[in-house]
């Protein structure tokens, strides 16, 4: 549909951009209501794709570069979160957030991976997530300054549910009474293979954008 109208008619796409950003906000709010760990991670993907759709619609070089960067970054980050969720499930046999708390007492290395991955999901610098969201935010703000309100709200809620996920699974007293296996080398290797490319690409982003 974007190819039918000339670039001077891009204002026609404002309702679609607002719809994409509103969908991202609703997905973020849904994340805050989740009690299932994997459901929370799945809904977080929907919220990030809302930003990607909005960036693609405006058809600017920065927007397209930001969409590409965020898709690649979120692919690694979301996969890493699912791996951590599975690591937790193998030891607790539950995905309920309140039942998986206190893991920092028995799996300190896994807690470190949870912290780093959640910080990347929040898009702190110098991660690739930060590069993608910064490009998207800049392009949307230049195209329509009022979109910064919805963007800011979406990113604020993203930070909220990411911290909620980390605190709910790692902090507090543990509820596990049985003997828990420590993290294995293969799990550390798997997380390294997820997060190392993000750091390397952030040092040379022209490889993908």
TrEMBL record:
Keywords: Electron transport, Membrane, Mitochondrion, NAD, Respiratory chain, Translocase, Transmembrane, Transmembrane helix, Transport, Ubiquinone. It comes from the Eukaryota. The chain crosses the membrane at residues 12-31, 40-58, 64-85, 106-128, 140-163. Belongs to the complex I subunit 4 family. Pfam families: Proton_antipo_M. This is NADH-ubiquinone oxidoreductase chain 4. GO terms for cellular component: mitochondrial membrane. Residues 6-157 form the NADH:quinone oxidoreductase/Mrp antiporter transmembrane domain. The gene is ND4. InterPro entries: NADH_UbQ_OxRdtase (IPR003918), ND/Mrp_TM (IPR001750). Its EC number is 7.1.1.2. The keyword NAD applies. It is found in: Mitochondrion membrane. It is a multi-pass membrane protein. Core subunit of the mitochondrial membrane respiratory chain NADH dehydrogenase (Complex I) that is believed to belong to the minimal assembly required for catalysis. Complex I functions in the transfer of electrons from NADH to the respiratory chain. The immediate electron acceptor for the enzyme is believed to be ubiquinone. GO terms for molecular function: NADH dehydrogenase (ubiquinone) activity; NADH dehydrogenase activity; ubiquinone binding. GO terms for biological process: ATP synthesis coupled electron transport; electron transport coupled proton transport. Its main location: mitochondrion. The keyword Nucleus does not apply. It catalyses: a ubiquinone + NADH + 5 H(+)(in) = a ubiquinol + NAD(+) + 4 H(+)(out). The lineage of its organism: Eukaryota, Metazoa, Chordata, Craniata, Vertebrata.
């Amino acid at each position: 549909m974007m190819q039918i109208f000339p670039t001077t008619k891009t204002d026609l796409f404002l309702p679609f951009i607002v719809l994409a950003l509103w969908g991202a906000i609703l997905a973020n709010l849904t994340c805050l209501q989740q009690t299932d760990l994997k459901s929370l991670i799945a809904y977080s993907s929907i919220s990030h794709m809302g930003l990607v759709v909005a960036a693609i619609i405006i058809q600017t070089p920065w927007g397209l570069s930001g969409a590409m960067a965020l898709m690649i970054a979120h692919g690694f980050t979301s996969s890493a979160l699912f791996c951590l969720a599975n690591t937790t499930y193998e030891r607790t046999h539950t995905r309920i957030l309140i039942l998986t708390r206190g893991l920092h007492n028995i799996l300190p290395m896994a807690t470190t991976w949870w912290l780093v991955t959640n910080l990347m999901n929040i898009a702190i610098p110098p991660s690739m997530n930060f590069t993608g969201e910064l490009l998207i935010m800049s392009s949307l703000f230049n195209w329509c300054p009022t979109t910064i309100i919805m963007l800011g709200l979406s990113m604020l809620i993203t930070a909220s549910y990411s911290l909620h996920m980390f605190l709910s699974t790692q902090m507090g007293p543990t509820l596990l009474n049985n003997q828990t296996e420590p993290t294995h080398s293969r799990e550390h290797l798997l997380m390294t293979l997820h997060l190392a490319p993000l750091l390397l690409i952030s040092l040379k982003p022209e490889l993908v954008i």
